[in-house]
Amino acid sequence: MSAPTSTANGNPDAKPGAKPGAQRGGPLAGVKVLELGTLIAGPFAARFLGEFGADVIKIEDPKGGDPLRKWRKLYPEVGGTSLWWAVQARNKKSVTINLKADEGKEIVRKLAQEADIVVENFRPGLLEKLGLGYDVLSAENPGLVMVRLSGYGQTGPYRDRPGFGAIAESMGGLRHITGYPDLPPPRIGISIGDSIAALHGVIGALMALHHRQANGGKGQVVDVALYEAVFNMMESVVPEYGVYGMVRERTGASLPGIVPSNTYPCRDGSIVIGGNSDPIFRRLMLAINRDDLANDPALAHNDGRVPRTQEIDGAIAAWLADRTIDEALGVLNAADVPVGRIYSVADMFTDPQYVARQMIQTFKWQDGRDITLPNVTPKLSETPGETRWLGPELGEHTDEVLQTLGYDADHIARLHAQQIV
C-alpha cells in the first residue's frame, strides 16, 4: 500500500501542513482504532482520528460494504464508487467480516483486544445482541474506549428509535431557528448533525485516552447522542427561555441580538458583514459615510444597537445598493471590517487564501485520474495530519489484517470460502 502522490492547490512540492523537520507519523501514531459503523457519524469520527496518524481498521459487510460507497456522485458514474468515499474512508483499512457468523464475531473480539478505541454508530443494543457490547470487549481489554454515536444516546425513552442527523438537527433546536419566519424551516445542505456528533465523539475519545494514560484511569464509554451534540451548539437559547420565556425564532440571514451581522445585497450579488463588535461598528459606519451613526452614543454598545437593527441594516443596504461586490469588499477590507463574499466550491478552488493554506489537494485515483480532496484540518505545526491513502476497495486489507492476528493462509482461505470474511 503506497501513499498517494499529491499536489496542494497545484504546488507539486508542497507537503500539506508540514514544515521542515516535522514528524510524519501524526500525533496519534500508535493509537489503534476499530470502526464498526456506516455512513456518516461513526465513520467521520474514525476518519478524523486516522487523519492524525491513528491506525484505523474499518469493518464492513462483505455484501456491499458501507452504503456510503454508493452515495452522491460516483466515479465512474455508472457502477462506480462514491467520490465522497475517497475522503470519508481515507487512511482506513477495509476488512470485510460477517458479524452474524460466530467466527466473524471472534475476529472482531480479537481486533478489539488490541484496540485503544472502538467507534460504533449502530442502533443501541445491536452490539449487545451480537455479543460485542462494551461489557464483553472491555472484559478482555479494560483500557478500551468505546465511542457510541446514536440518535438519542444509550439511555432514555427514545434510545431504541432510529435517529439520523436530520432528526437530531430538528430535536436539537437547529432547524427551528434556521431560515425565514414566513417559510418552513429548511435544512442545511450537508449532514451537519452527524458531523457535529462525530466531532464530539472524537473529543470524548481523546479525553478518555488522556484520562487512561495520564491519570491511570481505565477505559470507558463515550456516549454521544446526535440531538445532544446539536443541542450543545445552541448558544444562549436555554437561559433565554429559562429566564425570560423567550423562544428564539427564525430570523433569515441575520444573527439575532447581535447587530449588525447579516447578509446584504450588492449590485451583482450578496456579501456577509459582521460589524457587531463596538469598535468594528464604528469603523463600518465611518466607511459607509454614516458618521452620525458612528458617533451616536446610544449605538456605542450592542444592547443599544439591537432596538435599532432595522435602521442600521437599512443604512448598510442603502450604501451597498449601487456598489459591486468587489467595490464593497475593497472599501470594507480597507476599513478593517469583517466582510466576505459567499463562496461556491468553484470559488474555493481559485481563492488565494485557499491556495496559500493548501486546502485543496490533488491525488491520483485508482485508474490514474486526478481526484481533488479537502486537506486535513486543523493544522498542527509539528505533527500535521495527512492523507496517506484514499478510501480503500471493499475488503482490500482483510487478508493483511487477519495475518497480523495469526491466521495462516489456509485458515484465511477457509474464511473466504465460508463467506465469513
TrEMBL record:
The keyword Transferase applies. InterPro entries: CoA-transferase_III_domain (IPR050483), CoA-Trfase_fam_III (IPR003673), CoA-Trfase_III_dom3_sf (IPR044855), CoA-Trfase_III_dom_1_sf (IPR023606). Residues 1-24 are annotated as: Disordered. Residues 1-10 have a biased composition (Polar residues). Keywords: Transferase. Gene3D superfamilies: Crotonobetainyl-coa:carnitine coa-transferase, domain 1, formyl-coa transferase, domain 3. This is L-carnitine dehydratase/bile acid-inducible protein F. It comes from Paraburkholderia phymatum (strain DSM 17167 / CIP 108236 / LMG 21445 / STM815) (Burkholderia phymatum). The lineage of its organism: Bacteria, Pseudomonadati, Pseudomonadota, Betaproteobacteria, Burkholderiales.
